[in-house]
């Protein structure tokens, strides 16, 4: 969370930074600001979205060729002008932006206060900045030296950019735990939290590693480790087009991304799934087939929507590969001192590849000798790089804060993995394997059918938009889909929603049912169908209002439900790739009918780089 941008080169820095901040706004939008270096060091910052910063500087002289900018997701200190980044050091000579959390800031702050420092904000960032300046002053050294010394005392996560009044054209950056990409242009450099602000100018990038410091000038990029040894920058080519990060005619990124799913799932399967030959090509799986087929246990580690993908993977891997699976919230797993044994495989699931809890949970597991397989969307991200092997979900950049296409991409990857491992292991016979491969190949076309006509879903959204609570129920493979539907509704429309296994509903949530409570049943045709029909009746008997996701052609569920959203028939293992789509759309349409900013829901951020 928090987006950072920097530029040094022959262009005007402010427009480059402003555009970059707008692209990174999904990472946080509590406040934003820029610092520009042009003989003087000037800082402009404002509470609220980047557009508010833009309005507040109209008419001001923003001329500079070097600058840094920040869009914030508040951690220490409420969202306000004074807590907005960049921060200025006590002398006014250095400006800094920061993404992350300095955990030992309180003790450092006390030290500095004892030395006579005053603070203008409540942030941990200003503490780190003055700490660096204090070291610089005491050592009579350079900013780079002071930074290196300071970072050795810092506990926490950071990506920081610094500019200094007396050091023209230079940006000094450092990272640990929070991402940093440097774009290499001709006589110019771009710095950002991800590649989206850079793609327009250059496709050559360097992903900075943890514990590295970058000294960036228009013509020069020097990378060093904290021991002051030079590192060779590893230049990579970005495989991303500008169109992928623009709205392309849609009102919102969320709607665009929901509608992209036939293509993104197809892209994920392309070159991997060969239905006719009956093969699945995944080098990450193939190269480690021994470890994967002999795994004693798999542990899915993830957060948010990715955790729901992990839950579905539990059903898939247990059924098709007969491997016991546990699904862990990364934030719990990392602190619980979990038992990790030889033969365990950790599967890390993450859209961004930067979620702090997931990253640290994996680092801990790796230290204990676990084999880590990453299912990640963002190419080159931290989790992708620290995994022993992996498979990208190839959904392309996801900008809407609530995850949609990344989720179905994760499911497609996990399904292919389960099929390949199960087949290699012999727990999945040829006939079923071929059936599922064929079923998976048909999914993109079926998603297209769901998206063809969304008018019924829009009408349902309008009808129920004023409800205060929703209950989402499903059984088997549709239970994680119910959880995901409830999460989407909470995120996008601020309506309280709970997901539950349909049968478990009798042990509590049924007490909530009355003629005002909408109950969404994910009730497609599967082995539990008869049972879920009974559950629908139980709700109807108590006058609950039933909205069902049902299989096309079904007549029983539609006969009982108040409203129905249809999906084409599919094997129950693959059905979640379809049944989640109407639920994504339902929350989208409820959100917009309530006039909410669905791409940037309040308090949320897309890439949660703090724990
Ligand atoms: C945030 C996002 C969610 C996402 C979760 C995990 O909460 O708003 O959409 O599911 O982080 O993120 P990851 O990038 O690790 O999948």
Topology of helices and strands:
Blueprint: E1 3-8, H1 13-23, E2 31-38, E3 40-47, H2 50-56, E4 66-72, E5 87-88, E6 94-102, H3 105-114, H4 124-139, H5 143-153, E7 156-164, E8 171-176, E9 181-184, E10 189-192, E11 204-207, E12 212-217, E13 220-225, E14 230-231, E15 235-237, H6 253-259, H7 261-269, E16 273-274, E17 279-280, H8 283-286, H9 289-293, E18 297-302, H10 304-321, E19 325-329, H11 330-333, E20 344-350, H12 356-367, E21 371-376, H13 382-386, E22 389-392, H14 405-425, H15 430-452, H16 455-464, E23 469-474, H17 478-493, E24 496-501, E25 518-522, H18 529-541, E26 545-551, H19 556-560, E27 563-567, H20 576-593
Parallel strand pairs: 18-19, 18-20, 20-21, 21-22, 23-24, 23-25, 25-26, 26-27
Antiparallel strand pairs: 1-4, 1-10, 2-3, 2-4, 5-6, 6-7, 7-8, 8-12, 9-10, 9-11, 11-15, 12-13, 13-14, 16-17
The structure holds 6-O-phosphono-alpha-D-glucopyranose.
List keywords for this structure.
3 domains; single chain; globular; Rossmann fold; 24% strand; Glutamine Phosphoribosylpyrophosphate, subunit 1, domain 1; 611 residues; eight-stranded antiparallel beta sheet; alpha/beta; binds 6-O-phosphono-alpha-D-glucopyranose
